[in-house]
Please model this.
Amino acid sequence: MEGSRQGREDIDGDSSVSESESQHALEVVFDDDNARRRKSSLVSAENPDIVRQAAKKRDNTSCFVHQLLENQSKSRKSHPSSSYNEDRKLDKVADPPDQAVHSRLLTKRQLSEIAIGVRELSKKLGSIRLKLKVRTIFLLTKAHDSDLIILTRNIAEWLLSSGDRGTEYIVYVENTLEQNRKFDAQGLLSQDSSYEGRLKYWDNELCKKQPHLFDFAVTLGGDGTLLYASWLFQRIVPPVLSFALGSLGFLTKFDYADYQETLSTAFKDGITVSLRLRFEATIMRTQTAHEDRKHDLVEELIGDEAENNLTHRPDGSYTILNDIVVDRGPNPTMSNTELFMDERFMTSVQADGVCVATPTGSTAYNLAAGGSLCHPDNPVILVTAICAHTLSFRPVILPDTVVLRVGVPYDARTSSWASFDGRERVELHPGDYVTISASRYPFANVMPQRTGGEDWIGSISKTLNWNSRQKQKSFKEWEEPTVDEKSKSSKS
Model:
């Protein structure tokens, strides 16, 4: 997907720095100790014998967000105010940013650069209108909701008929709708011969292997439907415009009744995009549990691994928009987990579980567990215990440049279970842990024009009745009666 030349020039232009600023060049020095990554994290989950060969074959992404990030990164590196003074040894522990596949493969410096780049780009995208060349459109709805299927058909029909207005869009709908009687694909195709070949069907595998195929995504439903869109696009995400047809609507900002005007304006005049931070979570399985010796997870994760004796291996990665929850699952007793931040041990948590949320997910499970409400523009990681068996545990907010690990100690009585945006429940045995870091792939959420912080405040006030209370009455001060009032009172 390509952004318009005008939109790119606006963004590149904003990256310029005044002469006075360039005279005060900032020198950033990175500590060698903070750049270390565990050798276990550098092993490819697909083939442990080939660590990074697949990453080197990756072409530049066609996602407009990452094209802009790359342009911004090149501009920042070419400017004298962005010089770095660092030891080249840091690059030996992982691939450079343009070749690394997973966030867990990145050094501390690389994670910081990515986080800063996404934040800078997000600010710029929030203040401009981005024009896109849209040809292929992805439609997502609740395939089991008959009412939404009819509404989806209406949008598909309108998009297919747009050839009369100058653009012949290719529309992808879920493959389960091909034989759905409510959607009536054959009846739709029979209306016009030009629709043939332009109504197509997607499945999970297509979204996984060819996400760049779609220029624009439209969802019909609630926040759960939009979360499902994030789940389908684990890497590159097309801009997503969501029509509010669900219960709450923190992320769904558009009224379906105005869909023709909304989509026409988006395609013709451009869109405003809010980049939402996503997390990458990787399950790490212990490889030493079978050995006849006592193990300590803290010792393994903080200490150095021997060159040919890796303590853990990766077993699947997930990109999430809301939260990762590690809880007791079906076990009747509380879970026992240990938290690590970068290469430091934080604390042990004895509770029903731990919720690690993005700013977007602060209004979900994090809120129910007593965590803080957080504006989505904040670059943070929220950590909240679920029903902690202590009076002193309080929710903590960490920067998005850290790598967080949630592990099950070897001496835990039971295993724990991890879920990712409420999906893919995975059992964590004693010795296993989950690595959590900021993802290289943010979620591009299309927002209405001219909305800022007041939009988020309005959402929590409307959907959660935030700080809703009957206003306190003012005092009515007593006043001395006038002469006429006194005379009337005496007569009565």
In short: Residues 1-36, 48-62, 80-100 have pLDDT under 50 and may be disordered. The radius of gyration is 27 Å. The CA atoms of residues 356 and 383 lie 5 Å apart.
